[in-house]
């Protein structure tokens, strides 16, 4: 057969109906005999037929489609999240549509609208700061939503996140005990994401508990250059003072690292700690201490929660916090006097 095999072809070749084939493809075997099942399976194997999403949902309200919205698809954390989502989705017979919102609420709205037109069964979202709209989406569309990387405080919801605050607090406390005297945080605008608030708060609270102060530099993804960061650091770092720099945004860590390399002098004792980026931080010189999130597992857990809700297996709100680990490397080793 030169053209692509369709569900109609399979029905004709097995002398059944398109509805019966659709039941078979969706695992609804109670409406057919074992002989019919075996016949359909044999023809599908012989023709190499691969069902489309539309065919599989012919007699079902489900499309087996999941809409995934990510703030920034370019970093390693997001890549691992997507791998975890796809691992569970494919295992349970779902396909994934991915959108990159760039943390822009308008872009996020467009993606959600387009995904709804495609008939997605539910969403996995890394949310922006406008949390109220998600409750509205859930109520109006009756679609299940699961959030990752952020906890929504303004309404009950399903979410999976990591213990950002505790991980940063613990890492900062250990660095204080190592002997660091001055502290700097270089961060993106914390108002956009609850994750950013948690990371900054973990750093600041650990210092406050030790009666220590810190300097802050707010950076923008597209606008702040390595030269900008280097200029700030050069004007802020006090020579001969053990200084710890914290870069909580994984996309910013390479810029901060490069800026530090550009201004480093023998009189400076500068420590650096960031988030994720393990694909290069172990290989840099010096290697960089990072707080590493279990991103793959986070994606898996979010997908399990969503599909269970789509399929009616669990209708209770579910929240889960996964533990980060600290990857201690050369960048936080105090110089011996």
TrEMBL record:
One of its GO terms (molecular function) is DNA-binding transcription factor activity. CDD domains: HTH_LacI, PBP1_RegR_EndR_KdgR-like. Residues 5-60 form the HTH lacI-type domain. The keyword Cell cycle does not apply. Pfam families: LacI, Peripla_BP_4. The keyword Transcription applies. Keywords: DNA-binding, Transcription, Transcription regulation. This is LacI family DNA-binding transcriptional regulator. The lineage of its organism: Bacteria, Bacillati, Bacillota, Bacilli, Lactobacillales.
């Amino acid at each position: 057969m030169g053209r692509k095999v369709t569900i109609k072809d399979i029905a004709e070749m097995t002398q059944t109906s398109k509805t019966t084939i659709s039941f078979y493809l969706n695992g609804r075997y109670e409406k057919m005999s074992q002989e019919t099942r075996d016949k359909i399976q044999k023809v599908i194997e012989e023709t190499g037929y691969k069902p489309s999403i539309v065919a599989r949902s012919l007699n079902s309200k489900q499309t087996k489609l999941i809409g995934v919205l990510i703030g920034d698809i370019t970093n390693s954390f997001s890549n691992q999240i997507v791998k975890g989502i796809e691992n569970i989705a494919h295992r349970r017979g779902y396909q994934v549509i991915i959108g990159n919102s760039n943390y822009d609420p308008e872009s996020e709205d467009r993606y959600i609208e387009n995904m709804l037109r495609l008939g997605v069964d539910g969403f996995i979202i890394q949310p922006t700061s406008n949390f109220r709209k998600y409750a509205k989406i859930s109520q109006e569309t009756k679609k299940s939503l699961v959030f990752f990387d952020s906890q929504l405080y303004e309404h009950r919801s399903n979410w999976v996140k990591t213990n950002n605050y505790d991980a940063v607090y613990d890492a900062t406390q250990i660095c204080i005990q190592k002997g660091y005297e001055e502290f700097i945080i270089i961060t993106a605008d914390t108002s956009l994401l609850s994750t950013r608030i948690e990371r900054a708060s973990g750093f600041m609270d650990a210092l406050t508990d030790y009666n220590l102060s810190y300097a802050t530099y707010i950076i923008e993804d597209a606008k702040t250059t390595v030269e900008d960061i280097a200029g700030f650091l050069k004007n802020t770092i006090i020579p001969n003072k053990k200084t710890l720099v914290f870069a909580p945004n994984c996309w910013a860590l390479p810029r901060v690292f490069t800026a530090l390399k550009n201004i480093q002098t023998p009189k400076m004792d500068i420590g650096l700690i960031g988030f994720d980026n393990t694909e290069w931080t172990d290989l840099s010189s010096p290697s960089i201490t990072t707080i590493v999130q279990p991103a793959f597992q986070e994606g898996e857990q979010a997908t399990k929660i969503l599909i269970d809700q789509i399929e009616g297996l669990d209708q209770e709100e579910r929240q889960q916090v996964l533990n980060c680990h600290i990857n201690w490397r050369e960048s936080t080793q105090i110089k011996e006097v």
